[in-house]
Specification:
The chain is built from four helices and two strands. With about 70 residues, the protein is α+β, with helices and mostly antiparallel strands. A two-stranded parallel ribbon has the order 1-2. The two termini are about 20 Å apart. The mean pLDDT is about 90.
């Protein structure tokens, strides 16, 4: 995941990043992220959201991340 995020950053695939994962996963990911990728993280949501349906997930993200556009 960290390698792919760095590849996409190098290709200007995103200009900000929101991490959504359980706390332990964000911790593991942070250990492997490039410093330039870390600088683009605008928000971290440390929650396990796998139990949510797609509509519930979209509603959660729209409430939690105000700049997320329509998916």
């Amino acid at each position: 995941i960290a390698r792919e995020l760095n590849v996409e950053r190098n290709q200007h695939g995103y200009d900000h990043l929101v991490l959504v994962a359980p706390p332990h996963m964000i911790g593991l990911l942070q250990q492997h992220l490039d410093k330039n990728v870390k600088e683009l993280i605008s928000k971290e949501i440390q929650k396990d959201l796998l139990h949510l349906s797609q509509p519930e997930l979209m509603a959660f993200l729209k409430d939690s991340v105000k700049f997320v556009a329509d998916f």
